[in-house]
Write a structure and sequence with these properties.
Layout (H helix, E strand, L loop, with lengths): L2 H7 L3 H16 L5 H23 L7 H24 L3 H18 L7 H192 L3 H49 L5 H15 L6 H8 L1
Length: about 400
């Protein structure tokens, strides 16, 4: 084969035709609608004609561009058949046949070489299409017969059901009439019984209302009297309790004041004791330094007497011992005096604070606050006195 033959025999349209024929056969399997079957049969005949025409064409005379256009049209038909199989919409078959009309015009341009063998293939394709159409028609007739039989059975069932419904309707009408008569009679009896019972209940209710009103008025008057007695008793008891609470409040204020004064004076006492302890330690230190100085000078005198030291050595030895010890003793005396002074100050403040509350116990409240404010300004200079002023204002 030449390259002219290869470009036609190797063209993709051959595989497209095979896919399209297979898709048409699958779509026609089990199809019962006559119009849809006719549309599919026409498409099968067109594709069969195209295949036979392409096989009967002279491959050296077929232009590849024509095969490309036919391949595009065949793909469009294949897409429509695939869509029809997926959703069952017959519009896709109509669109495929419209595409096939253009495909026929392109197929007519093939350079077909007329041979007897080609005509036989065409006749075979036509006969195959007719056989397929006959099979589909027989299947449709069988399905139509089955549907007619089902319709006949349904019609008979409907007739029987209609007769049964008519009988049940007659029975229901009779039963409704009987129940209505019974209901009317029972309703009249219930109405009479209800009216009689309602009259009796109204009379009993009126008597009960009168009795409840009388009992309510009696109970209300008794409750009002009891409430007045309880109110007077509670009022008297409340006054007594308020007087007791005022007394307890005054006692609590005194106790809190004493506790506060005790806490403050206790702090000053603690500081004074600590200052006394430190002053005593410095005093002991001064005594020890003076004693050490005296002992050291005594040892120097003994050495001078034994070893006959010169006046210069004797003076240097006594000064080297006396000056540091006497300086230490002087510093210890100064520190002891300082801490003793602080002890005295804290003792004085402690005494004044401890005697403040007993001193002003009988003063009026305003005078008490004023004296305490002055004491605070004297003992604690710089502290704010806003709460004391607020108490005075009140």
């Amino acid at each position: 084969m030449t390259s002219w033959d290869d470009r036609i025999t190797d063209h993709g349209i051959h595989s497209t035709f095979a896919d399209l024929q297979r898709e048409l056969d699958d779509a026609g399997a089990g199809l019962g609608d006559a119009d849809e079957l006719e549309a599919l049969t026409r498409l099968q005949r067109i594709i069969a004609l195209a295949v036979s025409s392409l096989d009967a064409s002279d491959t050296e005379l077929v232009p590849p561009a024509l095969l490309d256009r036919m391949d595009s049209a065949a793909h469009a038909i294949l897409n429509e058949i695939s869509n029809f199989r997926s959703n069952g919409n017959a519009a896709h078959l109509d669109a495929a046949n419209v595409q096939a009309d253009g495909f026929l015009e392109q197929e007519a341009a093939l350079p077909v070489v007329s041979t007897v063998e080609g005509a036989d293939e065409v006749r075979e394709a036509v006969a195959s299409a007719r056989r397929s159409m006959g099979q589909h028609l027989r299947r449709v007739e069988e399905q139509a017969g089955a549907v007619r039989e089902e319709l006949t059975g349904l019609k008979e069932s409907i007739e029987g059901a209609r007769a049964e419904i008519d009988q049940q309707k007659a029975r229901l009408d009779t039963a409704i009439a009987d129940y209505q008569a019974q209901f009317s009679s029972a309703q009249d009896e219930r109405s009479r019984t209800f009216e009689q019972a309602a009259a009796e209940h109204r009379a009993a209710f009126g008597e009960a209302i009168s009795r409840v009103q009388q009992e309510g008025e009696t109970a209300t008057s008794q409750a009002r009297s009891r409430f007045d007695e309880i109110s007077r008793s509670l009022e008297e008891e409340g006054r007594t309790r308020l007087d007791d609470l005022d007394n307890l409040k005054e006692q609590a204020v005194r106790v809190v004041s004493v506790i506060g004064s005790t806490g403050v004076t206790g702090n000053y006492q603690r500081v004074a004791n600590e200052e006394k302890r430190i002053a005593d330690l410095w005093r002991y230190g001064a005594v020890v330094a003076f004693t050490a100085a005296a002992v050291g000078n005594g040892f120097v005198l003994i050495f001078e007497f034994v070893y006959r030291l010169g006046i210069t050595a004797l003076l240097a030895a006594r000064l080297s011992i006396s000056i540091p010890l006497l300086a230490l003793a002087g510093y210890a005396v100064a520190e002891s005096r300082y801490h003793r002074h602080r002890e005295g100050s804290n003792r004085q403040v402690e005494l004044q604070l401890a005697s403040l509350d007993p001193y002003i116990a009988e003063f009026p409240e305003v005078a008490k606050h004023k004296v305490k404010e002055e004491a605070v300004n004297r003992f604690f200079p710089g502290l704010a006195t806003e709460p004391t002023h607020t108490a005075d204002t009140e």
